[in-house]
């Protein structure tokens, strides 16, 4: 029976019943926490955005003719451009207008059109600067706007903070909506998901909608509690197979960088970084299996996230000394080491304030760190 429930949902059903799926995925009981207080306040303050009631692949009707964008759609797009860093209100109005006449209903034709934009990237922040030359229109901006509105409808409407999801995971703008709907379906029918607000969960962890290469595990592979814990860290699964795969990626990371401090460098694999965060969380709670703990420790994995961040930069200043023969990067002499210069300044400030652990002072002393160097941050 469980195997039948998990059977792949046909594409036609995914597009034809996307809104029904989103509604079914939202349950009022036992919803995950909404996050920090400022996020809850932000959700209360933002203007609700009404979504069309038609399904993504509903039949075309007389209302499918082009009409002006609704106030709700305009408000959503304005929020999106503000989140993208367009602070000038006039420029945002131009960008919203450049979306063109957005259908009041996202019918089958509009949905299929959005599906053809799978390679779409977020328009650049300078997009508004070129609108006058394009006589107020921009196919790229219009395509992105339609995708944003379609994504919001797919996820069930104005209660979902689509803008914040896109800020964290821009790839949602170019992901096949059918794969997103399939992921929601798989999560909804997974064992133990009754009572969970799946939509609220993916709003907190939008990366769950992007891991098409990872299947939702069965109860034989992972208990419902273990699966939920993985979801709360933005991982579709962390069963034994997935854990071994991620550990292999960690070993490759060590070979490439010389340490296991994944998540502490720009450009690190985001999924691997979330996996590392989950291992630290389980270790802190005493829930990490002894065998896994032994493997991670042997690979040089640091279970304290804050210490891992510090060691990442300590390794950087050590490598700097190997290249230059000293531990004093300077803005004019080493302009590409701006972040390392700031880190060195923070170390001096922490020691001067008496809040630096003695072991870190000793490690830097042994390296020959210059405690009297320039301090641009003070």
TrEMBL record:
Pfam families to which the protein is assigned, alphabetical: HA
InterPro entries the UniProt entry points to: Helicase_assoc
Low complexity bias: start-end ranges: 17-37, 53-69
Protein name per UniProt: DEAD DEAH box helicase
UniProt domain Helicase-associated: residue ranges: 240-301, 307-369
Region (Disordered): 17-69
Tagged with keyword Zinc: no
Keyword annotations from UniProtKB, A to Z: ATP-binding, Helicase, Hydrolase, Nucleotide-binding
Organism of derivation: Chlorella sorokiniana
Source taxon at top rank: Eukaryota
GO molecular function term, any single one: helicase activity
